[in-house]
Amino acid sequence: MMELWTSMGFLMAIFAFAQSILHSFLPPELRLSPDKLSRRLFRYFSSYCYYDIAELDGVSPNELYNAVQLYLSNTASVSATRVSLTRPPNSSTFTFNLSNNDYLYDTFNGAAVSWEHHVTQRQSQSFSWRPVSDEKRGFTLKINKKDKPFILPAYLDYIMDSAAELRRKNKDRLLYTNSRGGGSIDSGGRGWESVPFKHPSTFETLAMDPALKDEIIADLREFSEGKAFYERTGRAWKRGYLLHGPPGTGKSSMIAAMANHLGYDIYDLELTEVQTNSNLRKLLMKTTPKSIIVIEDIDCSLELTNRSSGEKKEKPPAQKPLPSGAAASGEEAQVRSVTLSGLLNFTDGLWSCCGNERIFVFTTNHVERLDPALLRSGRMDMHIFMGYCSFPALKILVKNYLGEREEEEERVWMELEEVLVKVEITPADVSEVLIKNRRRGRRVALEELVKVVKGRVEERKVVDGGEEVVEEVKRTLESPNDGGGGGTEMSVDDERLDDAKEGKELTV
What we know:
The chain is α/β, with parallel strands linked by helices. The protein contains 17 helices and 15 strands.
C-alpha cells in the first residue's frame, strides 16, 4: 500500500514538473489553444446562443443590465425559488431580484429563453479613477438558435420599454423646482432640486363639471398613448394646457390630479429665477420624459403683453438686489433677459422637442393679459376655464368631506341648488366651510353652508345696488348744473360714489 501511494505521488510530481516546463517555454496562445478549440466545438454543435450582459461597461453603468434586472423582478417574485429584496431610492415599493447564480425562464413571441445571474470576484486593481465593486455581476441570456431571428433585438427593446414603465410606476412622483441663483446650471450639471410629490388630488376628488372632467381625462389618455401618432405626423410629443379662472377655483389641484393620473413628475418652473433665454433652454434640456412642466401665474412671471396692441413692449423683470456685502458674479450681474420669444421657443420651437411625452401647463387669473401668440394651438392646445363652484362640483366637495348623500337632506340640497346659481363662490370657499364644520355633524355643516351661500347672495345684491348708484352718480355728474350750491352737491356725489365703489348699502 505504501508503494502505491509513493508511486502516485511520484507521478503527480512528474506531471506538475512537466506542466511548469510547458508554462515556462510555451507561449500563452499555444497553452490556451485546446481550451479555445473545445469551446468552439461546443458552440458549433450546441443548439443555443449565449449573450452576456455585464453590470458595468468599462467603468460606466450598463443601462441594459439595470433594465434586465428590473424586468425580471416581476417574474422572479412569482416563479423563482430564491430572490433578493431591495427598495430603490425615491420608492415606497419593494423590488424582487434574481439571486446570485440562479436561473429564471421567460417566453417572448412563443419562444422560450432563460436567464442566469452570475456573480464572480473581480481581480484587484492597483489604481482606478472610480471606486469599483469587488464583485463582477452580469446576466447571461440563453436563446435557441432557431428562435434568434424572431427574438433579437425585439426582445431587448421590449425589456427596455417594460423596465422604463415599471420604473415609473414603482418610483414615487417628484416635484422639481429650478435651483436658486437665476436658474443657472451648477458645476454638477444640475438645474433642478426635487422633493417627493405627495399631493393626494385625483380626478375623482376634483370639484368641477363632470363632462369637462371626462373630456380632460380622454385628452390625457390620447396623449399618453399617442406615440405612434406623433411620430407619424412629424410632431413633437408634447401638449399644452392653459388653466385660467379666478383664484381658488382649483388650478393647482388640477395639475396634481393630472400628474397622479398619468404618473408624471412635475417641474415647477419659476421664471423670475431664470436670467436668460440660454438658461431657460438649459433647464428644458434637464427635464425628463413623462413630466409636466408648470408655469403658474404666467401673467405675473414676466412682462408678457399683447404685442399686437403696440402699447407696450416686452420688458425683463427688475433684477433682485444682492445681499449687502455680496459681490455680483458674472451671471448675477447681468440684467435678466428672458423674453416672450424665448418662452415661445421653449413651448413650441426647436427646443420643445428635446424630450418626449411632456406636458406644458400655464395658469393665470387674467387670460386677457396674455399675448395671443402664447395662446394659439400648438402652444396651448386646450384652454380650460376653472370657474366658480357649480352644483355638480358642490356635490363632489360634500361627498369628499362629509360622505355620501342622505335621503332626508333633499330640502337642503334643493335650497343649495336654488341659491348657488345666484352667487359666485369658489370651491376653495366651500371647502373651508365644510372643513370648519365637519366635526359638528353632517346636517350642521350643510346648514352652515346654506347660510354662507345665502350671505354671499345678499352681499352680491348690495354690490349690484352699489353699481347702480355709481351709474346714477356718474349721470348726475355729467348732467348740466343749474347753478347755486354746485360745489356742495359735487362733494356729496363724490362721497356717495366712493361708498358705492366699496360696496356699501346706499339709498338714493
